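step 3/5: co-fold with flavin-adenine dinucleotide
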Amino acid sequence: EAVVYWMRMEDLRITDNRALALASKHAQQDGVPLLTLFVLSPQDYVAHDRSARRIDFTLRNLQSIRSSLADKHIPLYTTSHTPRTTLPDYVLSLLKQWKATTLFANIEYEVDELRRDIKLCELAKKDGGIACTFVHDRCIIPPGQVLTKDERGYTVYSPFLRSWIPHLTPKGKDSPIACAPDPASNTPSVRDHPVYGPLFDNTVPDEVEGFTMDDAEERERIRMCWPAGEEAARLMLDRFLHTMSRSSQLGAVDPLSEGAKVPTKNPNKDSRVGKYKDERDRLDADTTSRLSPYLAAGIISARTCVRATTELSANKKIDVSRDTGIGRWNQEIAWRDFYNHVLALFPRVSMGRPFQEKMANVKWESETRDGHLQAWKDGRTGVPIVDAGMLQAKTMGWMHNRVRMIAAMYLTKDLMIDWRLGEKYFMEILIDGDLASNNGGWQWSASTGVDPAPYFRIFNPYTQSHKVDPTGEYIRTFVPELAKLRGEELHKPPPGLADKLGYPRPLVDHDEARKRAIRRYKNPGEE
Ligand code: FAD
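step 4/5: write tokens
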């Protein structure tokens, strides 16, 4: 007999993992071995527009987890299965083969995944009682707990935050940021077991067909920008909390190299987190944590991040104030909770529907018209700040939040292209692609979502550019044609100069485009 922990794409860690901790506890109580399972599901990756970068990151992390678990004599069995419709049957067949009594997993809030897990529970029950336990782990406060007076989910962030904060007060083991215990080791004799012993020979594949990064140079670059493993995630957190930013680190560089980590004597003032309140929107400053790939894949838990900030705050409490860097950062972690709650409580957002149904009829331009969508993807719109963002995504598989907003608003309002095409492209190119946050961000920018940007408040990309990249260092880093320009010429190159440098002229006139967008949003369905 055995207890099984089923690891999924969003909980790629051993430390502070609730389902894994529970599985271990049960295995210890019953005196049976703990086994762990990961099922690669290529059809799900297609359905969710997963990027090859994210799949490669997943495999690299699994390799690291496999080796750490093996040190505890716990096997990680990585396998692949299609079609995705029979995944529950397949998992059940493995459980039976392993004579498992209980299965533990962390809940995934996406609709397809919830349906899959419900089906597995039903099958397991019918089949003679393998108990399946799914637990909340992804958010600081689980969906369903932060509700309005009439017990509904919040659809506006600020009241959500006000209601979220009181849930943080419990202390000790009841604290929402309490760390789940590490799993205990199996006895070494499990390696001699006729069924469980051979599981240790299983290895993590180097690639998943259909999701390979064929360009070796790209693969190396992405791997350098995003080192795998829990230790790397912890070092990224340390980098954010304890070291200073350097604008020379904006490009594709190893984030953990010594140059990227200038120690600071006064973390609350000079460190990245110290400057976060005032500088987090600066594209030319590298003051954000760059933890999103690690949080999206669960390589570090949101609890661990918030816990680490309490060590820095004066009273050792969770700081969520607007007035400090730490407080503002924890408020961003609350945005992550917010979008996950929206996903869990309003599943239609993940089904390609706008949250604001009245916006379903907004008239979009054809995606192929004048090659605008492709030009946006290629970073060739002729608007430097948009192009720099899109080229950052191509180069690093990641973008700063502010430039995601600028690029998304430009696609939906200036080019008037359907937000779902942008949402899909971000999933395909980013290493931190996450349904809840990506959908939330896109529907915010397209003014179709929960708590959206009002449709008439359209970013002027040139004004934004001056504001968020005042030194121009960001544009110069990512748009090589403009590397020698400064000031206004850099933010909005005059046509003659652009032609000379081989840089495109703007695809549309912003003022004209803005009028078109307001007209179409005001009267959905009309031209
Ligand atoms: P920090 O500023 O250091 O913030 C810390 C953490 O808080 C982030 O890692 C993230 O987990 C969370 N967070 C911060 N801002 C947000 C936010 N607005 N919404 C939700 N969570 C947030 N984030 C993703 O993780 N995956 C996505 O696929 C994604 N797509 C986006 C698409 C659009 C159009 C927009 C506007 C935003 C998107 N975001 C997404 C949110 C945000 O841009 C990134 O989380 C952030 O840029 C990551 O950088 P960081 O880790 O340095 O963030």
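step 5/5: annotate
The pocket of flavin-adenine dinucleotide is lined by residues 280, 288-292, 295-296, 332-333, 335-336, 339, 400-401, 404-405, 408, 426, 430, 432-434, 437-438, 440-442, 445 (CB under 6 Å).
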